[in-house]
Automatic annotation (TrEMBL):
Species of provenance: Diacronema lutheri
GO biological process, alphabetically ordered: oxidative RNA demethylation
PANTHER family with a match to the protein in the record: ALKYLATED DNA REPAIR PROTEIN ALKB-RELATED (PTHR16557), NUCLEIC ACID DIOXYGENASE ALKBH1 (PTHR16557:SF2)
Protein name, per record: Fe2OG dioxygenase domain-containing protein
Domain Fe2OG dioxygenase: 89-196
SUPFAM superfamilies, per database record: Clavaminate synthase-like
Cofactor: Fe(2+)
Gene3D superfamilies: Alpha-ketoglutarate-dependent dioxygenase AlkB-like
């Protein structure tokens, strides 16, 4: 099946059908295996990020070459359909493993380990589907999209700093290959990031919990509001040019 891309809005694109189901299964099994070891999804016998979620964050070179190939193919496809989507260079991978229905709270990817530019965050889903919500401002009504196994969501350019949430993991919506999956139904997300600033400092971000950092989220929102207010104050309506009517000959 050739990949197909949908532009949800400029800077926000879903690419579907990049991986075969054999590739999806292989990647999920590989991620589950990496997650059991040192530097995996667990710390002191418990999942390391939340009650139902474990995470791995490390530099790109730690992972097999097919991750970069998938990321690059998704970026190329998204840029083909959306000219506002910037390029990106994959430097770090965050793998989230969700074992319960619990998703992830509203947040913006504003931290150093998320990357500091408008280059897209590239997010591959495998296993159980999820409902992904997004909006630009806190007071906006959110929109949502279901991400299924194999879907790649990219947010960059004008959407790089959107507010987003994983509303729910749909544990009963799994691809056929997950029927035989040893730990049972679960969701993986593989988030590819262009974050050259943190190369060599991966240890600092291994157990990062953004729920503890909501002040930074609030500060970011306030800075946005202030910036928009300043732009609105500085705005001068364009002067209308008065063109004299040409007298009829
Ligand atoms: O799991 C996902 O798909 C989203 C992860 C996410 O938003 C994040 O880690 O910042
Ligand atoms: Fe995020």
């Amino acid at each position: 099946m050739p990949p197909s891309a949908t532009v949800l809005e400029p800077g926000l694109v879903v690419v579907r059908g990049l991986l075969s189901s054999a590739e999806e299964e292989r990647t999920a099994r590989e991620a589950w295996a990496i997650g059991q070891g040192n530097g995996g999804f667990y710390k002191d016998g418990a999942l390391n990020a939340a009650a139902g979620r474990g995470r791995i964050y490390d530099r790109a070179e730690r992972f097999a070459a097919h991750y970069k190939a998938t990321c690059d193919a998704a970026v190329a496809e998204a840029r083909r359909v959306d000219p506002t989507m910037p390029p990106m260079l994959f430097t770090h991978l965050l793998i989230n493993c969700y074992l319960t229905r619990d998703g992830l709270m509203w947040h913006r990817d504003i931290y150093e380990n998320d990357g500091k530019s408008d280059h897209p965050v590239v997010n591959l889903s495998l296993g159980a589907a999820c409902r992904f919500g997004w909006k630009h401002e806190r007071q906006d009504e959110g929109q949502s999209v279901v991400l299924e196994s194999g879907d790649v969501l990219l947010f960059g350019g004008p959407c790089r700093y959107i507010l987003h949430t994983i509303e729910e993991i749909l544990l009963d919506t799994t691809p056929p290959w997950m029927d035989g999956f040893e730990p049972g139904p679960l969701r993986f997300s593989f988030t590819f990031r262009d974050a050259p600033e943190v190369l060599g400092r991966e240890e600092e971000f291994r157990f990062f919990k953004f729920s503890a950092d909501m002040k930074e989220q609030d500060d970011f929102d306030k800075a946005r509001r202030d910036e928009r207010a300043a732009l609105a104050r500085a705005y001068q309506p364009p002067k209308m040019a008065v063109v004299p009517a040409t007298p009829a000959a």
